[in-house]
Amino acid sequence: MTKDHNDSMHNAEQRGPMRQQPSRDVLVEFSMTPLDKGPSVSRYVARSLEIVAESGLDHRLGPMGTCIEGTWEECFSVIQACFEAMREDCDRISTSIKVDYRKDRQGRLESKIASVQAKVDRPIRT
């Protein structure tokens, strides 16, 4: 193939309806806690959860963190937004981030739990 043909095909891929949506292949569990606001920080967690919800990403709140599913860029953009909001009125913030990338799967917030549940053949508390 000629260079012009390759360029033409590349441009068509970028602009045409056949362009694929990015695969949401990353699960990220994160927790972000202000260390200078006393023993109860739920109002800061709630504020971050609003940012997560507004992102449109599938997410689950757990007792020790929040799990979100999306692309690498989407997930870390949300985490950055949560950090920026928290640092407006917090002088010290502890953040923990755990990432699970899997190229060939999405919808894992549900499917990972369902897979284990099927193996133990009973409901699992989540």
Structure description:
This protein has helices at residues 3-15, 42-55, 72-87, 108-120; strands at residues 26-34, 58-62, 65-70, 93-101. It is of the alpha+beta class and 126 residues long. It has a single domain, classed as Alpha-Beta Plaits. A hairpin with a 2-residue loop joins strand 2 (58-62) and strand 3 (65-70). The chain is globular, with a radius of gyration of 19 Å. It starts with a helix and ends in a 6-residue tail after the last helix. The model is unreliable at 5-19 (pLDDT under 50).
- Low-confidence parts lasting 5 or more residues at pLDDT below 50? 5-19
Question: Could you name the CATH class?
Answer: Alpha Beta
On the 0 to 100 scale, the average pLDDT is 86
Q: Mind describing the biggest β-sheet?
A: 4 strands, antiparallel
Estimate the global geometry from the Cα principal axes: globular
Strand content: 15-25%
In DSSP terms (H or I, runs of 4 or more residues), the helix count works out at 4
Radius of gyration: 19 Å
**Overall domain count:** 1
Structural class determined from secondary elements: alpha+beta
> Separation of termini?
54 Å
Number of strands: 4
Task: Summarize the helices and strands and which ones pair or pack.
Layout: H1 3-15, E1 26-34, H2 42-55, E2 58-62, E3 65-70, H3 72-87, E4 93-101, H4 108-120
Antiparallel strand pairs: 1-3, 1-4, 2-3
Helix pairs in contact: 2-3
Concise overview:
The chain has helices at 3-15, 42-55, 72-87, 108-120; strands at residues 26-34, 58-62, 65-70, 93-101. Residues 5-19 have low confidence and may be disordered.
